Please model this.
Amino acid sequence: MYDNILVPTDGSDTAEVAVAHAIDLAEKYDATVHALYVIDVDATSYSLGTEQVDRLRQGHLDEMPEVKASADAATGHVAEAAAERGISVEEHVRAGQPARAIRKFVDENEIGLVVMGSHGRSGLSRALLGSVAEKVLRETQVPVLVVDEHGED
Ligand code: ATP
Ligand code: MN
Model:
């Protein structure tokens, strides 16, 4: 049913719960897990100049070690957890607007299922869903499994 499962992660605790579900499903379906971290170029936390944003969009991360470290930590955690279970896993990093980049990744990589958190790092829990989760649900053509932070078992 699913050959390629995408777990978009911003490194948040809720995304970690999604990772556990993604790995479990990958095991059942003998699928590859794709861990995707999107560097949110509009996020003020990075406070990047336009030149840096351009470089990021072109995939140059080496000159921005802090940004690269966040990305590597998030996807690396997925890779480790999958490897422990003997599941094939790929790490991917993109720069852009998270929901748009996730959608594009789905279209370009034959993703059959997306597993993601209901919330992420900014975690304003008064909203039912975070904005990235909501946009992906609205605009993605494949099934999306949304888990919340209490959803591990
Ligand atoms: P908001 O960002 O709207 O203020 P939030 O941070 O609580 O709220 P979302 O950003 O929608 O919620 O996060 C929901 C899920 O979307 C996360 O658990 C994660 O799976 C995915 N996600 C969010 N941001 C990224 C990102 N930059 N890269 C990859 N996946 C992401
Ligand atoms: Mn967010």
In short: The CA atoms of residues 15 and 117 lie 5 Å apart. The domain at 4-148 is CATH 3.40.50.620 (Rossmann fold).
